[in-house]
Amino acid sequence: MDFTYDDEQVALRQAVAGLLRRRYGDFEERRRVVAQDPGHDPAIWQQLAEMGALGLPFAEEDGGFGAGPVEVGIVAAEIGRVLAPEPYLASVVLAGGVVAGVGTPDQRAELLGPLAEGSRRIALAHAEPGRRWADDAAEVKASFDGQTWTLSGTKEPVPAGDAETLLVTAALPEGGTGVFIVDGDATTRSTSRAYDGTRVSRVVCDATPATPLGEAGRDATAALSQAVDLARIAACHQALGAMEAALEATTGYLRSRKQFGVTLNHFQALNFRAADMYVSLELTRSIVEWATMVAATGDAARTHEAVARAAVQVSRAGRHIGQDAIQLHGGIAMTAEYLVGNLTAHLTALDHLFGDGQHHLTGLMATLQDHEALDPLAAAPQDVA
Amino acid sequence: MDFTYDDEQVALRQAVAGLLRRRYGDFEERRRVVAQDPGHDPAIWQQLAEMGALGLPFAEEDGGFGAGPVEVGIVAAEIGRVLAPEPYLASVVLAGGVVAGVGTPDQRAELLGPLAEGSRRIALAHAEPGRRWADDAAEVKASFDGQTWTLSGTKEPVPAGDAETLLVTAALPEGGTGVFIVDGDATTRSTSRAYDGTRVSRVVCDATPATPLGEAGRDATAALSQAVDLARIAACHQALGAMEAALEATTGYLRSRKQFGVTLNHFQALNFRAADMYVSLELTRSIVEWATMVAATGDAARTHEAVARAAVQVSRAGRHIGQDAIQLHGGIAMTAEYLVGNLTAHLTALDHLFGDGQHHLTGLMATLQDHEALDPLAAAPQDVA
Amino acid sequence: MRLTLSAEDRAFREEMAELFTTVVPQEIRDTVLEGGELTADMIRTSQRALADAGIAVPHWPREWGGRDWSELQRHLWHEEMQRAGVPSPLPFNTSMIGPVLAQFASQEMKERFLPPTANLDIWWSQGFSEPDAGSDLASLRTTAVRDGEDWVVNGQKTWTTLGQHGDWIFTLVRTDPDAKKQRGISMLLIDMTSPGLEVRPIELIDGGHEVNEVWFTDVRVPGENLVGEVNQGWTMAKFLLGNERVGVAPVASVKRMVARAKQLAGPQLRDPLTRARIATLENDLLALELTALRVVAHSDGGEPHPASSVLKLRGTELQQAATELLLDLAGPDSLVPLTAESSDAAPWARRSAPTYLNYRKASIYGGSNEIQRQIISRTILGL
Amino acid sequence: MRLTLSAEDRAFREEMAELFTTVVPQEIRDTVLEGGELTADMIRTSQRALADAGIAVPHWPREWGGRDWSELQRHLWHEEMQRAGVPSPLPFNTSMIGPVLAQFASQEMKERFLPPTANLDIWWSQGFSEPDAGSDLASLRTTAVRDGEDWVVNGQKTWTTLGQHGDWIFTLVRTDPDAKKQRGISMLLIDMTSPGLEVRPIELIDGGHEVNEVWFTDVRVPGENLVGEVNQGWTMAKFLLGNERVGVAPVASVKRMVARAKQLAGPQLRDPLTRARIATLENDLLALELTALRVVAHSDGGEPHPASSVLKLRGTELQQAATELLLDLAGPDSLVPLTAESSDAAPWARRSAPTYLNYRKASIYGGSNEIQRQIISRTILGL
């Protein structure tokens, strides 16, 4: 059991941190980028590609770098720290993960290579209005006329859905859920700026031509769920980065801001609340890093459970830290030009992207009697081998 | 809507408070009384009778004083404040309430007169081991041989079950739950001192002769439930008194106790926790007093709901205030000779006597869709008449 | 002890319910009931309708439109207003500067300002907070220097809510730089069209624009616009802030939010954890409402009850809990912006996250919850 | 990053599990596993068995029985010990005075005391806290005055846990009344059979007797019983308290409690609110355990990791939450006393309330949770 990064991982963190902090360390810069289309900085996207960050999770034969959840988490955390608006989570981790999990070798090479090079963005259109974090697709339906597949129905919200290429999930004629490659411009879509500055789209297919990702007609629910789990763990890291930044900003503020003639850290009640934020943060870091290592084993069932465990904790800690960071700052944190409130907004959005704390807790409640006590040190057979 | 006591009620409070604070204001006295049998002071019981406190809830024709839940609550709160060990709740409110609700006029006069005079105690034996706050009896069964009723089975815990006369609930041969008058000495019983100093008994009946309370063979579940609801609201007042005393002791301690060269009220974090205790206490007082007024209307269904609402709040506040009173005191509150920890112990016991917060919340969850919003000012028809 | 309202108060309550639902246009009330955003015109229309009905400023002195109601009646007025979805009369006018003028101003000033204040012909802004002061209001730096008959004002105010609509601003200014903190402060009424006065918007994290900075550069204010005496400003500020805390528990509006949440929850109401959460919140609101009723019953004719701080503290906590509940019920639909061109996600769901974020302010503004805890521990508990 | 233990540590863990379940009598372990009360003899028997197996004092210097294990191995040792229901070696001996003597005492004193300390042939008591000191340890008043070669001790200690079994007591005494608070304090080892030393029991709110007052009236202590130098006591106290905080998270024992709660819950496990409560607690424990693993991994060979305070703070919170869970599962059966002559209520249910009450101390003793928050905010957050 070892929670430390190796030299390569440390170097990756430094490289990504250097790039993103230079670009967005002044929060005004991030505000400016987010205010305009496309809502992120294509030059930064390109630089992330050049340092290899966009290809991390993909196999080398698919055009990637064969790294894993740990490395993806490092990038995501740095994104979270400065609220970099680049659609790493949506495009690389989520949509790229679906391609890696479902696509044929040809499709993987075709889609993931350009994605890793930064020349083509993709997005996963899965959520359907009014359905809460469902594993399958229901409202968007796929049809096959013997020659071509077409899709009809509405997907919303689609994170970073302004990508060139969309992967659209759809109910298959024979049952199950398939994933289809769709030209974004072949759909009717509108993209707008979400409350945390990221972009979300509504995508309407109306007999829109589509190419099956992977084997045509085959149910991809399980593979989708695995890709979503990996995106969840990356989202946990992104949240962790945002929480770290929120706590740092808060302690910095308490040390420097004067009221009633003294700096705020003369008020014990405020210091103690900051201490509780630290406790939340450290507990969260532990469980997120552990879940990441579980994910790195590739064991889908264990990963699913570990990710749910991390997500329950991240949801609670994100609310605690996000809310208290604003409260301890006071009015200034309510303003759009100040980092802290935006961290809270982003934490809130992440919490509702792939299932909130109650959603994941409900899953854990069902497995309560499967174990006597949890033992994170108990090695699974394949770990020992 | 009026939350103030009238002059008579104020006088009652002063009289009871005067008596009990004189006797138990020095906590060492309470310890001494509780350490010996019978665990309370018969002289105080007699004085309570003389000032009319023991007959408050009963009709004048039954030997009582025709008062109601408000007056009973006043007595219970004063008991809670000093942890007076007299079995007012168990004997007068609960057992007396069952007699008043179920007994024939003759039985009421026979049992309630002496109870009000302090010459005879009664206790309700209802709980059965392993069953959680059930409304009915299951393990103790009543039989009728055409001439006499007998009971068999075990009741535990029976609060203040060392009384001369027991009311034992039992499953009736034809179904339903009956209440029976049993001579305490005709049972096999053992009485011991519970962790909060009160007395609880185990009562075993083995073909024990019994007299039906009220009409023989008739299901008394509803009447029992109503009597328990009135005992619940009295228990809420007892808890409120204990919470008040715990907060008072805590603020007094913070003002006087020195550490690191200053009194503890120089530590903002401690003061803020005391403020939160105060908030809990005031919210609790409001809902308890309201539920008491609802109970005073005699409407059983509204009372049941109102009592559950008060109990949910009392359970949470009792834990909050009880736990934090100990924490803010530190080690001294862990000692048996100091009032505060004993207040917490009693709050804990009260919480588990007639259903804890989760028990009552579960009831409220079931009625969630019966109303749009709660409106305590909406008058029921009979209130307006 | 009496569980019910007196016949008189019951009749009063019914009268209020009737008035609120008849004199204020349905469209305005629907906007409030659905959690939408009010325009300045809607606020004006509503307040003028209340003023016409004689119920805009019931707590003012009778000669300026007040009603001599009991505290309980004022509470019922406030609750029924919220329940009917009627926007509260502009607090800067009716709760803040109005009572201050009625108490401290000259007869001339009262006559000039109170009627248009009640009728929202003047839209008042509040010029108290400053960027470096926070909860430490008395450390303000905006100065007013005497120049002939006029005052010349320089400095900056912030957190001026709805200042973009303001006609006049009541302002705390430092008139004696040598006096100790709380002394040397005066209150000036300033016409917001004065040269040198500039209102700059502040965007909040919910994307909305409800607060502003107000900059003063050599703004000339006629001497007659001084309220009361020079250097008496802190007395008025304390009077004003004391009033602000009364009746602050937003009970009826939060109850409305939770009732709506139950309607909107749909199949999620089958989830026992959601049911437990809502049942708990309803119970907490009941305890709060009953506490508010206790407080008003004991406040008649005197100082604000110290337990007012409990209402503010707990009221904002529950307000925030209700917005968080709606957000979680909205789930992934909360990610869809209100500004999206077209969407299948319900507007309430798309509004839920901005509303949640916006209400984080509730525990900061108007005396932060830390200030309330301080008041409780000092004033009530003697710590 | 590595999810699993190394082969070596895995083998170590298995060895520990094996040792603990074989060398310590089943009867003792069952008492622990069922939440029962240990006798002094059981504690002695258990520790001597561990000492025989060479695993009673692994963190001591090698020459006195230590094992040079890594922090992770010590953690695994501790967790497997708790998991097996083995009573922890008496902390006053092995975590407190032992390391102090090994670090500060003369060779002669080490030879005299360390072996019987490890083997629990001497049962040590702690004489630090005083009635008027609380968390402000340095304000102690017990004095030791030089008289010839001896020290004469007067004063009172309190909260002396298990002092009724104590053979010797390590005591902080004021040896220079004129020096500032922390200076002028020395550490003396005092034979508890000395004339003038009296142990008086303190009954706790759970009805148990685990702490005591210790009174000193002209107690003569040979000069050789001074540890280290005169007036060096505060240094040793800090060293001791620093050690006390390491590995304080009672993870395995709380996990055991929650696992038992699941077994005992029976049909209550069908209640979704109970399920949610237990699932949350399990997850919280997992986060705590992983944090403990992170801390030990980063503590090797140095100062205690500052995040140790997180473990103490959160560990005691969860410990208390677990006792509260058991209490609520027991429900009305919790009202039946353990001392009842006969009862149909399960012993665990009858023990649940005293246990709940007893564990309120967890957030007070050994550095209260307020002290831990203070450490976190000062040391880690720089506030």
Characterise this structure.
The complex is a heterotetramer, with 2 copies of chain A (385 residues) and 2 copies of chain C (383 residues). With 385 residues, chain A is of the alpha+beta class. Chain A is 52% helix and 15% strand. Chain A has helices at 7-24, 27-35, 42-50, 69-82, 88-102, 105-117, 221-256, 268-296, 300-329, 339-351, 357-366, 381-384, and strands at residues 122-125, 141-144, 149-159, 165-171, 177-183, 188-193, 199-212, 258-259, 262-263. In chain A, strands 1, 2, 3, 4, 5, 6 and 7 form a 7-stranded mixed β-sheet that branches. In chain A, a hairpin with a 4-residue loop joins strand 2 and strand 3 (149-159). In chain A, helix 4 crosses helix 7, helix 5 (88-102) packs antiparallel against helix 6 (105-117) and helix 9 (300-329) runs antiparallel to helix 10 (339-351). Chain A starts with 6 loop residues before the first helix and ends with a helix. In chain A, 59% of the residues are buried. The model of chain A has no long low-confidence stretch (mean pLDDT 96). By secondary structure, chain C is α+β, with helices and mostly antiparallel strands. Chain C folds into 3 domains: 7-89, no CATH class; 124-231, Butyryl-CoA Dehydrogenase, subunit A, domain 2, CATH 2.40.110; 246-380, Butyryl-CoA Dehydrogenase, subunit A, domain 3 (Up-down Bundle), CATH 1.20.140. Helices cover 47% and strands 13% of the residues of chain C. Chain C has a 4-stranded mixed β-sheet. In chain C, a hairpin with an 8-residue loop joins strand 6 and strand 7 (211-222). In chain C, helix 8 (251-265) runs antiparallel to helix 9, helix 9 runs antiparallel to helix 10 (308-330) and helix 10 runs antiparallel to helix 11.
